[in-house]
């Protein structure tokens, strides 16, 4: 379907006029020229009665496409108002993988209502998919794939593929299995069609199949697809039995979700806040509660660590009675520089740790420290020039310069090593949040600064 260039508002008005005039057949024909998501946008703007009325006149494949892409709340609202037999026909057109993704977002009661509508065969497969832990490859995979037995010849395989391709989510790859449904090879349609009719699948298949386990984190599938430039990747169980496939469009969705999740974690928030923020039907109250719930914990940690900084100030209050008391005024500058360097280094390190193609080793640490040294020297030069122009005392300038350089190096080291250590402990490095890094560097920075001042003035 080609996408019209008309504005969404003009399209909505036209659809509404035709519905009010009860020109439903003409409306159905007109909407065949529009993209599924354009129709979905219209449905979202319509009232409840008109939503159901429009949805019921759509072709089954279009209705299925809309339900595969919509939010769970919209899905429940539509399905609860349309005839069950019509809903079943729409479900028959849907990918079971996409349907299971939507069912995961529902509560148990709503989920069971949908499972009561689908066919018994689909119900069994959906329950199998729903049994997998969230964010594993098994929970992300689709069931619409094509397999051929390794003993079939090319002619037999082509006939089999023709009969099975209608239900397939992807036919870029043909997966070869043995009599126990264990994955033993893979081949492309091109390989199949250029081979001799008498050749068996075992003769022409590629045996070294890249696959992921159904109980592995779905990020492993992302890494494999990215590394080997695959269009789809098979999912197998511990015995090597083929259970499903993860297609590249699912991989893109996972990448977007994981990137968003990591950013929320790094900002000191939570995945729950992201989910509420992305839910168009969430209320202001729900959004506020999710913000408080996601952020308060790290803010409390930040507050408690800030007391450590205050305690260090109290311990060095003797500096206020010395001739170097003016150095206290430069504490914010020292702390800001150290915190920013630590945040930059930790962000880059977390990205490299998440990216399977990037190796994080001693060279990574050395790169951060060397670049921090260069940046620190540049900052020292700039600060020294500014202080000289302002008539600063040489001793004060030297103390500030040394403090800047040391804090920059400490920030780079801390920001780089902390995610690496957390990753070594097999935890998610993205939990190294920016607010916590900053406040820890505040503690380190103020302690180092006061120790340097004390060393120079002999306290």
UniProtKB/TrEMBL annotation:
Domain CBS: 141-204, 205-261
The UniProt record lists the keyword Membrane: yes
One Gene Ontology MF term: magnesium ion transmembrane transporter activity
Cellular localization per UniProt: Cell membrane; Membrane
Chief place of localization: membrane
A Pfam family this chain is assigned to: CBS
Gene3D superfamilies referenced in this protein's UniProt entry, alphabetically: CBS-domain, MgtE N-terminal domain-like, SLC41 divalent cation transporters, integral membrane domain
InterPro entries: CBS_dom, CBS_dom_sf, Mg_transptr_MgtE_intracell_dom, MgtE_N_sf, MgtE_transporter, SLC41_membr_dom, SLC41_membr_dom_sf
Record's keyword terms, sorted: CBS domain, Cell membrane, Magnesium, Membrane, Metal-binding, Transmembrane, Transmembrane helix, Transport
Membrane topology: Multi-pass membrane protein
GO cellular component: a single term: plasma membrane
Regions crossing the membrane: 296-314, 326-354, 369-390, 397-422, 434-457
Known role: Acts as a magnesium transporter.
Subunit structure: Homodimer.
Family under the similarity heading: Belongs to the SLC41A transporter family.
Protein name as it appears in the record: Magnesium transporter MgtE
Organism: Peptostreptococcus anaerobius 653-L
Lineage: Bacteria, Bacillati, Bacillota, Clostridia, Peptostreptococcales
């Amino acid at each position: 379907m080609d996408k019209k260039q008309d504005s969404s508002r003009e399209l909505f008005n036209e659809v509404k006029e035709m519905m009010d005039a009860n020109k439903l057949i003409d409306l159905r024909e007109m909407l065949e020229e529009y993209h599924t998501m354009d129709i979905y946008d219209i449905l979202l703007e319509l009232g409840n009665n008109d939503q159901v009325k429009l949805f019921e006149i759509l072709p089954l494949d279009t209705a299925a496409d809309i339900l595969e892409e919509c939010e769970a709340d919209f899905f429940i609202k539509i399905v609860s108002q349309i005839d069950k037999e019509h809903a079943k026909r729409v479900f028959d057109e849907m990918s079971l993988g996409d349907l299971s993704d939507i069912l995961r977002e529902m509560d148990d009661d709503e989920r069971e209502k949908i499972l009561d509508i689908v066919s018994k065969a689909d119900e069994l497969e959906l329950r199998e998919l729903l049994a997998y832990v969230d964010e594993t490859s098994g929970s992300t995979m689709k069931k619409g794939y094509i397999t051929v037995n390794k003993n079939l010849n090319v002619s037999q395989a082509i006939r089999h593929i023709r009969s099975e391709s209608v239900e397939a989510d992807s036919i870029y790859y043909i997966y070869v299995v043995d009599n126990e449904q264990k994955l033993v090879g893979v081949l492309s349609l091109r390989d199949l069609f250029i081979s001799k009719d008498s050749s068996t699948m075992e003769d022409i298949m590629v045996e070294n199949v890249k696959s992921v386990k159904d109980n592995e984190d779905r990020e492993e599938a992302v890494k494999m697809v990215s590394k080997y430039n695959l269009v789809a990747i098979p999912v197998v169980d511990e015995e090597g039995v083929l259970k499903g496939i993860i297609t590249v469009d699912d991989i893109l969705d996972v990448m977007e979700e994981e990137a968003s999740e990591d950013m929320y974690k790094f900002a000191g928030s939570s995945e729950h806040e992201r989910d509420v923020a992305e839910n168009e039907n969430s209320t202001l109250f729900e959004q506020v509660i999710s913000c408080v719930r996601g952020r308060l914990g790290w803010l409390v940690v930040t507050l408690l660590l800030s007391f450590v900084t205050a305690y260090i100030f109290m311990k060095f209050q003797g500096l206020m009675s010395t001739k170097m008391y003016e150095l206290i005024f430069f504490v914010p500058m020292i702390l800001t520089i150290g915190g920013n360097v630590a945040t930059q280094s930790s962000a880059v390190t977390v990205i490299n740790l998440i990216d399977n193609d990037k190796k994080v080793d001693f060279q990574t640490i050395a790169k951060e420290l060397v670049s921090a040294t260069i940046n620190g020297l540049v900052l020292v030069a700039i600060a020294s020039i500014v202080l000289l122009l302002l008539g600063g005392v040489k001793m004060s300038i030297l103390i500030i310069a040394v403090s800047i350089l040391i804090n920059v190096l400490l920030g780079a080291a801390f920001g780089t090593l902390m995610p690496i250590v957390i990753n070594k402990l097999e935890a998610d490095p993205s939990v190294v949040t920016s607010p916590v890094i900053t406040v820890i560097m505040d503690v380190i920075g103020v302690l180092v600064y006061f120790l340097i001042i004390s060393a120079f003035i002999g306290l």
